[in-house]
Amino acid sequence: MFKKLFGKKEEAPKTVIASAPLTGTVKSLDEVPDPVFSQKMMGDGIAIEPTDGKVVSPVDGEIMQLFPTKHAVGIKAKNGAEILIHIGLETVSMNGEGFEAHVAEGAKVSKGDALITFDLELVKEKAKSTITPIILTNGDNMADLVKKEAVSVSAGQEEVLEISAK
Prior knowledge:
The protein is mainly beta. The protein has one domain (28-165): Glucose Permease (Domain IIA) (Distorted Sandwich), CATH 2.70.70. 9% of the residues lie in helices and 40% in strands. An 8-stranded antiparallel beta sheet has the order 9-5-6-7-11-3-2-13, with no helix packed on it. Strands 1-14-12 form a 3-stranded antiparallel beta sheet, with no helix packed on it. The protein is globular, with a radius of gyration of 16 Å.
């Protein structure tokens, strides 16, 4: 309150807790049948095998990137953590078929806001896998990434990652 009265900017939180962006079963990255993710070439994180086709924001932040094919979205959390949610594997080849974005690049989002909906059955039919990696892409710039113990999660509910800034 004192800071707001005198116009000082609120400091960014040092640690953010990311909730599950999808409903489904949590998997470790080494279970993802794609070396880019399983070998953590893009960064560390988790994966979720979805049971429905709704992706929500795991954190309060800003949409940094929305792929034209709507199969992936990048979010910058308030502490600077950059999180990529990549729906399925080899879904870029679907050219956006079955995907609908509910946000645009630059949009401010709150934890739980709808980001993308997709036709899970169509992804099962046309893509290599429905498994969805959730990756901290700028882990080198962050202090710590803690993966929470979770197995079955609901979108926007269970905590899955704790990310601390340096």
